[in-house]
Specification:
The protein is an alpha+beta fold. The protein has one helix at about 65-90; strands spanning about 1-5, 10-20, 20-30, 45, 50-55. The strands form two sheets. A three-stranded antiparallel β-sheet has the order 1-2-3, with no helix packed on it. The longest helix is centred in the last third of the chain and has 27 residues, at about 65-90. The radius of gyration is 23 Å and the shape is elongated.
């Protein structure tokens, strides 16, 4: 692994070793890199597309998507209730 600094931030050049061979990918812009040159770091990658690499902290937990789903479901329920109430009282 190597680093490259850009605007005071550091990108990590990570080498992935997979069955198909190896690939080098730049990861993140870190104010404080999680590892020094030559160290090992855990990454999450797409085996179908080795250019798609994230640090574990960058992987979403799905909480935002869950909140959006709940919010949109409640909004839909409110709209349906408003329509039903309008027709019942009309």
């Amino acid at each position: 692994m190597a680093t490259r600094t850009e605007n005071g931030r550091t990108r990590l050049l990570v080498q992935l070793s997979v069955e198909e061979g190896s690939n080098r990918i730049e990861v993140g812009l870190f104010k404080w890199p999680p590892v020094s040159v030559g160290g090992a770091v855990e990454v999450v990658y797409d085996p179908q597309d080795l250019s798609n690499v994230l640090m574990p902290d960058d992987v979403g937990t799905g909480r935002v998507a869950l909140l959006l789903a709940i919010g949109s479901s409640l909004l839909l329920l409110f709209c349906v209730l408003a329509i039903v109430i309008t027709f019942v009282t009309w």
